[in-house]
Amino acid sequence: MLERVRILQSLHKPNSGIGALTKPEKLYFSNTNLAYALYEENVNVGILKETFFVNQLRVSSQVNPASKSDFLIDENFTFETGGKNKGGIKIQGIPSSFIVKDDIEYGIGNTIPL
Questions:
Q1: Distance from the first to the final alpha carbon of the chain
Q2: Are 74 and 93 a contacting pair, CB within 8 Å?
């Protein structure tokens, strides 16, 4: 019900059989402002980045948790989110993989600004 009223958004493993009936792999607020409203000063910035990323991509893509990084988009593209100093070690060797960084203005190679 919380997903239907757009308070929470859950991510399930891709091809997990009964899908929506299984326990979600990851659970996020549907809006980053909800985290500030509930946690005030103790907001985890990493979770905010992931929440924003999922919120923006769920509109037009299938978003699932990935086994070796943060997200698998449309079962083809792997994304790792982080700050401007985030390295690409977790996604090294994975085809169609990208790093989404906060606090950068320009993308280079497989690095995309959040």
A1: 29
A2: no
97: its two tokens:
């993989």
Half-sphere exposure of 51 (CA within 13 A, CB side): 20
pLDDT of residue 19: 56
Closest CA to 70 of 93, 36, 46: 46
pTM of structure: 0.84
Nearest CA-CA partner of 92 in 110, 114, 76: 110
Confidence of residue 1 (pLDDT cuts 50, 70, 90): confident
- Tens digit of each residue's pLDDT (9 = 90 or more) over 49-86: 999 999 999 889 999 998 888 999 999 999 999 888 88
Phi, psi of 8, rounded to the nearest 5 degrees: -120, 160
Residue 38, Cβ neighbours under 10 Å: how many?
A: 10
Owner of token pair 């990208």: 98
3-state SS, residue 9: strand
